[in-house]
Amino acid sequence: MNIGFWVMIALVIVYVVGLVIRNKSFQHVPVDQLGSWVGANNERVVIDVREKDEYQSGHFPGSINVPLSGISGQFSKIPKDKDVAVICRSGNRSMQAVRILKQNGYTRIWNVARGISAWSGQTEKGNKPGKLQS
Fold first, then answer.
1. Helix (H, G, I), strand (E, B), or coil: what is residue 44?
2. Residues belonging to the active site
């Protein structure tokens, strides 16, 4: 085998290790444990970062809709003194939101792994958001 092959293998390994390290810096809540995670402490908040129409079609009960597209303008409304779980459809946008929140001083942030699409519990429909901090 030629050296180009081994260089390519090395680059793939470095890339995969980087992804693993980056994702390990997040705390995760498995979606199937979200209900018990919230129920274990009434100070916990769930933020849904999907767009408004996605949120209205079905969301985790009591979650607050703060779309990723506007999250930077909502920092003052997301509590820093509470545990906050961030959810989206599949887990990709919530990971982006977690990164943004961590870069802005949030330390009690969890990403909901696999998102609402993997949630098998009840959902609420419409615009019945929980309350954001005033």
1. coil
2. 88
Residue 26 CB neighbours (<10 A): 16
Residue 61 structure tokens: 């009960």
57 residue type, one letter: S
- What residue spans define the domains of the chain? 27-118
Give kind and range of the element (H or E) at residue 30: strand 27-30
Domain at 27-118: CATH architecture: 3-Layer(aba) Sandwich (3.40)
User: pLDDT for 74-109, tens place per residue?
Assistant: 998 899 999 999 999 999 999 999 999 999 999 999
Is 59's pLDDT higher than 90? yes
Residue 47 backbone phi and psi in degrees, to 5:
-105, 125
Name which of 69, 49, 72, 71 is nearest 129 in CA terms.
49
Cβ neighbors of 4 (< 8 A, separation 6 or more) are: none
**pLDDT value of position 133:** 44
DSSP for 84-122, please give it.
EEEE-SSSHHHHHHHHHHHHTT--SEEEEET-GGG--S-
> What confidence tier does 9 reach under pLDDT thresholds 50, 70, 90?
confident
